[in-house]
Amino acid sequence: MIRKFREGLAIGLIYLASFFSVILLAAIIGYVLARGLSMVSWSFLTTVSSVLRGTVGIAGNIVNTLYIVILTLMIAVPIGIGSAIWLTEYAGHGRFVRLIEFTTETLAGIPSVIFGLFGMVFFGTTLGFGYSLLTGALTLSLMILPLITRNTQEALKSVPDSYRTGAIGMGATQWYMIRTILIPSAMPGIITGVVLSIGRIVGESAALLLTAGSGYLLPKPGAGYLYNIMESGGTLAVQLYLSVAKAGYDAAFGIAAVLLCIVLILNLIIKMMIGKVDVLSR
Fold first, then answer.
1. Pairing between strand 55-58 and 48-50?
2. Exposure pattern of 184-222 as b/e (b: 16+ CB <10 Å)?
3. Nearest 5°: phi and psi at 68?
4. Across the chain, which distance is largest between two alpha carbons, in Å?
5. Do 75 and 139 form a contact (C-beta atoms < 8 A)?
6. Would you write out the chain's pLDDT as a tens digit for each of its 282 residues?
7. Can you give the pLDDT at residue 222?
8. Which residues pair with residue 55 across a beta bridge?
C-alpha cells in the first residue's frame, strides 16, 4: 500500500513539474509574441534602421544571422562529426580518448564571453580578420564543436554492435560500414545535435559583439554577397541586446518575436527531416 502511494506521489509530482514547465514556456512565448507582433511589419522585416529616413528595420540583421548560421555550420559540422567518428570507431578507449572527452565537456561549459575574447584576439587580431562575420563564425564554431561532437558520439554509441559485426562479417571495410550503416542509423541523433547548435548560434550575442561587431546594413550590392563575410555584421540577438541597451523596448520585443518564429520554423523543418530519416533508415 505504501509502495503504491509513493509511486502515485512520484507520478503526480512528475506530471505537476511537466505541467508547470509547459505553462511557463507558453507564458513566456505568449508574452513576447503579444508585445512583439504589433511591431512586426513588412517594412520592419525588409528595411534597415535609419535616423534620416525615420525607419526601424532588421533586414540587415536577418541576413547577417543567416550568414553566421551557414558559415558556422559549414565549419563546425564536418569537424564535429569527423571527430566523433574517430573517437567512437577508431581511437579506442584509452586514456588519451578520455582526456579528449573530458576536454570537450569542459569546453561546453565555458562562458561564451571567454570564447568571444579568444576569437577577438586570435581570429580578429592575430590572423587579421578584424570585426567580421568570418571571425564570428570561427568563434561560434569553437563553441558548438563540443555539442555536435558529443551528440554524434552518443548517437553512434546507440547503434547496436550487431550492425558493426554483421557488416564486418560480410566482408565490408570499416569505413564502408561507417558510411553506409552507422551514419544513416545515427542520423536522427546527429541532426538533433545540429538543431541544438543552431539554437545556440541564433541566440548568441556576447561572443558576437566581440568578434562580428554590430553592423546592421545589408550587403553592398556592388561588392558581391560572398565578400560580405569580411565585413562587420550584427545578428538579431546582438541587435536585440543593443535595442534594450538604448531603451528601444518595442523594437526589442519585435526582434524577439521574429527570433521565436525563426527558431520555431527551423525546429519544424528539422523535425520533418528527422521523420524522413527515420523512415528511410528502417
1. antiparallel
2. ebbbbbbbbbbbebbeebbebbbbbbbbbbbbbbbbeee
3. -60, -45
4. 78
5. no
6. 677 777 888 888 898 999 999 999 899 888 988 888 888 888 888 888 776 776 778 888 888 888 899 899 999 999 999 998 988 888 777 788 788 888 888 887 888 889 999 999 999 999 988 888 889 999 999 999 999 998 898 888 888 888 888 888 887 788 888 888 888 888 888 888 888 888 889 888 889 989 988 877 776 654 555 557 788 888 889 988 888 888 888 888 999 999 888 888 877 877 777 666 555 555
7. 46
8. 50
Instruction: Please count the other Cβ atoms lying within 10 Å of the Cβ belonging to residue 157.
Output: 12
Whole-angstrom Cα distance, residue 110 to residue 105? 9
The runs of H, that is alpha helices, within 37-132 are 42-46, 59-85, 95-108, 112-119
Q: Which three cell numbers stand for residue 163?
A: 550492425
Quote helix, strand, coil % in the chain, to nearest 5: 80, 0, 20
Report pTM: 0.84
* Residue among 269, 128, 127, 112 at smallest CA distance from 201: 112
Residue found under cell 504589433: 38
> What pLDDT score does 78 carry?
93
Tell me the residue length of the chain: 282
3-class SS of residue 171: coil
Cα–Cα dist 209/131, whole Å: 9
Q: Cα(267)–Cα(195) distance, rounded to whole angstroms? A: 7
- Take residue 262 and report the three cell numbers written for it: 525563426
Q: What 8-state DSSP symbol labels residue 170?
A: T
Q: Exposed, middle or buried by CB within 10 Å (0-12, 13-18, 19+), for 22?
A: exposed
| 162 vs 188: CA distance, rounded Å | 19
